[in-house]
Design goal:
Strands 31-32-33-1-37-34 form a 6-stranded mixed beta sheet. The protein has a 5-stranded antiparallel beta sheet with strand order 2-3-4-5-36. It has 16 helices and 37 strands. The chain is α+β, with helices and mostly antiparallel strands and 681 residues long. Pfam families: F-box. This is F-box domain-containing protein.
Length: 681
């Protein structure tokens, strides 16, 4: 048979076979591809550039495949769907291959929090204190500045003369900021302050009876706070929730919701709360009546209730068939590595329980860190009363009937991602990992690790480490609907028998920044490392992040020490004023001999790291001298930025003549620090 290549077909017919496909047919093909595949297809030749350049062509792709992303929401406002598609595809690839686009020091602070793309950090220069809010996702050059003493004087006048108090941000969303204010006169008082700083509004001040494990969640219409403070019949504490109507600026008439069936108290580890749409959701990976039995099965306790009607009668709880988690005979868990979250799927909009567990699985050597996803499903009549009738023994018997006792049972692979195999897990200890997350949209786990050599004496060396998987060529996963029909026909949870073909290729792991080549030093790598490991601010790291960035604060750990806040983003649209070019530094692929259920090709095992160097090579001596000069200059700029931020001259955009205003806009601190690098591709 004569095989025609693209060049031969082009010579014979003028264009290749694919290029002769009509516009409509290409659109049908694109509907069956992932965003990354669509983007890569467009790069194969100039003819297909319209796939990622034409807004009309890209609109159905973005609105059907990733409608719940920030990029899609912005495209809905601007109409620039082609830009959204390119931005999403590049972000996914940058995340998977540990290749950030921007790294920079964006603030110096005494404490910080990160919610919904907003960096909220507090600067203390007693008796003055400021809360500054920077929109990291939109990367504006201005940030909102709140004068905390003025805010307190306006919100709780009798506390204005109190010099010793505690103030921290609990949550931020939809322009609403919730803060915890604690002070002591005759006795200690704790207040919840709900403010809208853009318009200098104090929406509510509420005195709290307890602050135990306090949290806040809100959207633009409702706000809820909860504390782990209500004592149950067994003498143990339970969660209690209270709602506030932001539209009417009043507390909901219903009494506090007492969550008698919700176990767990460590938010982000054993319990999680979120607001999605018109519902308040909560989930726990613990149960109230755990039994010391190897055959005992564990379930998620997942619930929701309408934001406008927080009552037990409206409470829905996932049934046992949908909330199955694991069986104790699978092996023990190392709780230090675990995290628990509720997320919205970028494509379907479904709510998903995401959990990381490090387990010593039965009949396997060593431990594995695995990421599990469970779709949140509420069927009819899944109310609290129905769930309470399902006692622990009844639930156990039901699942035992489903389980195949004669063979091991495994979850469907699209809901289970094995991260670190036993041979990898020993390379990292928990104290050296400052941040662990899983980005489900691109099947990637990401860690911020201290990769310092044991014999090194030059301080910590922070690096990003990622691992991602992709489907094997020609494999198509069954649709959600077909899986549901199969599950209902056999009355089983989302599990499958041992031995079913694994559809994913082995994990590809990357680390950034890559190793420096002593024979051919790259000055760009030195500059990047100096931003990650800030001289004079090393020793204590607190990190967080989201689906597009990692952010952490680092300090020397001494009491009262100031923290440098470092921002790393994988968003190709990220732009800061004052950025400098940092070269073309890609993540370095980590060679792996781990099979993950499939054979690795010899050429993939031997693949060397990819580090593209765009900056000119310099001699080692010149590089060292330049490095020392830059370090001294940058240290001075950090100190100068901190000094200038201790006493800003505030001018409110709402009323410039009002000296009593407690909120205003001001130039962002990162403009004074001027330590930001961007990397090209």
């Amino acid at each position: 048979m004569l095989l025609w290549g693209t060049e031969e077909m082009t010579t014979l017919f003028g264009v290749s076979g694919l290029q002769r496909l009509p516009y409509e047919l290409v659109a049908y093909i694109v509907q069956e591809l992932d965003i990354e595949d669509v983007f890569n297809w467009s790069l194969c030749c100039k003819h297909f550039q319209y796939i990622i350049r034409d807004d009309h062509f890209c609109k159905p792709v973005v609105t059907t495949k990733v409608p719940n992303t920030l990029e899609a929401r912005e495209a809905l406002e601007t109409g620039r769907y082609s830009r959204a598609l390119r931005r999403i595809a590049k972000r996914h690839e940058a995340l998977s291959k540990a290749s950030p686009y921007v790294v920079g020091i964006v603030a110096c602070a005494d404490s910080y929090a990160f919610f919904g793309g907003k960096l909220c950090y507090i600067i203390e220069a007693r008796p003055q204190r400021w809360l500054r809010i920077l929109d990291i996702h939109r990367l504006t050059d201005q940030e909102l500045v709140i004068d905390i003493p003025k805010l307190i004087a306006a919100a709780i006048p009798r506390a204005a003369k109190c010099r010793k108090y505690k103030f921290r941000v609990l949550y931020q969303a939809a322009g609403i900021v919730s803060c915890l204010f604690s002070f002591a006169l005759r006795e200690t008082e704790n207040w919840l302050l709900i403010i809208k700083p853009q318009s200098s509004q104090i929406l509510e001040t509420f005195r709290l009876a307890s602050t135990a494990r306090i949290f806040v969640r809100n959207n633009d219409k409702f706000l809820y706070f909860g504390t782990h403070s209500e004592e149950g019949a067994d003498g143990l504490r339970r969660w209690a929730l209270k709602g506030y109507d932001l539209t009417t600026k009043s507390w909901l008439p219903q009494p506090r919701v007492y969550m008698a069936g919700l176990a767990g108290y460590e938010i982000g580890s054993s319990v999680c709360f979120e607001i999605f749409g018109d519902y308040f959701y909560g989930v726990s990976n613990q149960t109230l009546n755990e039994i010391d039995d190897p055959d005992w099965h564990s379930f998620y306790y997942c619930f929701r209730f309408p934001l406008s009607e927080p009552s037990i009668t409206k409470l829905q709880v996932m049934g046992s068939d949908d909330s199955w988690r694991r069986t104790h005979q699978e092996g023990p868990i190392d709780d230090r590595w675990g995290f628990l979250s509720l997320e919205m799927d970028e494509a379907s909009g479904d709510i998903v329980i995401l959990e990381c567990r490090k387990e010593w699985l039965k009949d396997q050597r060593g431990s594995k860190r695995t990421y599990y996803a469970t779709e949140v499903t509420f069927r009819e009549n899944t109310t609290q009363r129905v769930y309470q009738r399902l006692g622990a023994d009844t639930t156990r018997r039901g699942i035992r009937d489903h389980a195949q006792s004669d063979s091991d049972i495994h979850r469907l692979p699209q809901y289970t991602h094995v991260g670190d195999e036993s041979s990898d897990a020993s390379l990292w200890i928990r104290s050296k990992m400052h941040y662990c997350a899983y980005i489900r949209c691109c099947h990637t786990f990401i860690d911020l690790v201290d990769d310092t050599d044991i014999d090194a004496s030059d301080g910590p060396r922070l690096r990003l480490r990622t691992g991602f998987r992709r489907l094997k060529p020609g494999i198509r996963l069954p649709s959600k609907q077909s899986m549901l029909e199969t599950m209902r026909s056999v009355s089983q949870p989302i599990m499958q028998p041992h031995g079913v073909h694994h559809p994913y290729q082995p994990n590809e792991r990357y680390i950034w920044p890559p190793e420096q080549d002593s024979r051919k030093p790259d000055f760009s790598l030195d500059r990047a490392r100096r931003l990650l490991d800030v001289k004079g601010y090393q020793g204590c790291v607190a990190a967080t992040g989201d689906e597009r960035s990692v952010i952490y604060a680092t300090s020397d750990g001494s009491k009262g020490s100031v923290q440098a806040v470092v921002f790393i983003t994988f968003d190709p649209a990220a732009r800061f004023r004052g950025m400098t070019y940092g070269g073309n530094i890609l993540g370095q692929q980590i060679p792996s001999d781990v099979c993950d259920g499939a054979d690795l090709d010899a050429d993939r095992r031997a693949k060397s790291s990819t580090v593209l160097q765009s900056s000119p090579n310099v001699s080692m001596g010149a590089a060292v001298r330049q490095s020392e000069a830059d370090t001294e200059e940058n240290q001075l700029s950090l100190d100068a930025a901190l000094a200038s931020s201790a006493g800003p001259s505030l001018s409110s955009p709402h009323d410039a003549s009002s000296v009593e205003s407690w909120a205003c806009y001001e130039n962002a601190m990162h403009l004074e620090i001027q330590r930001k690098l961007y990397f090209s591709r």
